[in-house]
Write a structure and sequence with these properties.
It is a single chain. The protein contains nine helices and eight strands. With 255 residues, it is of the alpha/beta class. It has one domain: Alpha-Beta Barrel (TIM Barrel). It has an eight-stranded parallel sheet. Strand 2, helix 2 and strand 3 form a beta-alpha-beta unit.
Length: 255
């Protein structure tokens, strides 16, 4: 597969615009990464769209996200962090701005507490059909299994991060949970093997993302991450992971 012609739908990216509020998280404050920086970083690919994910350092600020989506264009959507008391009319307005998912950052904080996850996720899904996105270490998936299983629609970031939780992650994938093939520099296991196992468990589950600008990752995104997916699965199967699955998932209600 020729890199310059590879199509991707980026299921996980961050925009860090210093014109909007940034909050220190666990002693960390990110460097700027604007929409222009993002397009420059992926200039060699055929970019079909993507999902801008709110980070712990952005808390419940929506202004940066709405601005980023205006600049990125209609093929991009937003993944936001909200508190459970957010009124319906605000959620509906955010939906009109292109936001399509609600993030629960169990790893870093900055989002609503896990104790409110099931009820809040169900309410938002009923209201605007957003799915829930979980940044969670897979070692916690066993204790959260019944809660996650009850969610109407859900994805899990960064392959779950930990080898110890992979069996539970794969079981959830079999049940229809989406898994983001992102943040390869964050995990502690053989990525190629995990990609193959999750794909075989459910070919519709895996969704590629760059994780740009890879804040706090021991190793940031590079082109070899895409090559690994292609080499592990083959061109046709890799296309499912690189763009089909995420494109279908994030734009499934856009009519």
């Amino acid at each position: 597969m020729n890199q310059s012609r590879v199509k991707i739908f980026d299921s996980h990216l961050h925009i860090i615009d210093p014109a909007f509020p940034i909050y220190e998280n666990q002693g960390f404050t990110p460097e700027p990464f604007t929409t222009s920086d993002y397009f420059s970083a992926l200039g060699d690919y055929e970019l079909l769209g993507g999902a801008v994910v709110s980070g712990s350092f952005q808390k419940q600020d929506q202004s940066y996200l709405v601005s980023a989506l205006e600049k990125l264009g209609p093929t991009f959507v937003g993944v936001t962090q909200l508190l459970a008391e957010t009124p319906d009319n605000e959620i509906i307005a955010l939906n009109k701005s292109g936001i399509r998912a609600l993030r629960f950052n169990l790893k870093r904080g900055g989002s609503e507490d896990v104790s409110k996850m099931a009820s809040f996720a169900a309410r938002v899904y009923e209201l605007v059909r957003w799915h829930a996105e979980l940044y969670v270490d897979s070692t916690s998936l066993k204790e959260l299994y019944s809660t996650i299983s009850s969610l109407p629609s859900v994805s899990i970031d960064h392959l779950g991060l930990s080898k110890a939780g992979l069996p539970t992650l794969i079981k959830l994938a079999e049940m229809g949970v989406k898994v983001k093939a992102t943040g390869f520099g964050r995990v502690d296991f053989d990525i190629a093997g995990a990609v193959v196992d999750i794909y075989h468990a459910n070919p519709a589950s895996l969704m590629f993302g760059t994780d740009l600008p890879s804040t706090r990752a021991p190793r940031p995104f590079n082109d070899s991450d895409i090559s690994l997916i292609v080499e592990s699965l083959g061109d046709s199967e890799a296309s499912q992971v690189l763009f089909h699955n995420a494109q279908n998932f994030y734009h499934r209600h856009d009519t």
